[in-house]
């Protein structure tokens, strides 16, 4: 992964740089995920898997975890 990666976080995370959050980036057809307080650990997935996960989140399938 050469070059600059443009990480994006949710607007729900707030604007304070001290707030820890999950960040996403799109690089070479892959989706990258990391936690802002552990940026050296990156999980890679693809759009279809991320889409399925987000649909589950929106449907409340993971509400018991928070």
Order of helices and strands: EEEEH
Overall pLDDT = 90
Report the portion of residues in β strands. 25-35%
Task: Indicate the radius of gyration in whole angstroms.
Answer: 13 Å
Helix proportion: 10-25%
What is the general shape?
A: globular
Could you give the distance between the termini?
33 Å
Low-confidence stretches: none
- State the total count of DSSP E strands: 4
Assign the structural class, choosing from mainly alpha, mainly beta, alpha/beta, alpha+beta, or little secondary structure. Answer: alpha+beta
Largest sheet: 4 strands, antiparallel
Could you give the order of strands across the largest sheet?
1-2-3-4
Number of helices: 1
Keywords:
66 residues; four-stranded antiparallel β-sheet
Report what the structure shows.
This protein is an alpha+beta fold and 66 residues long. It contains one helix and four strands, in the order E-E-E-E-H. The termini are far apart. The model has no long low-confidence stretch (mean pLDDT 90).
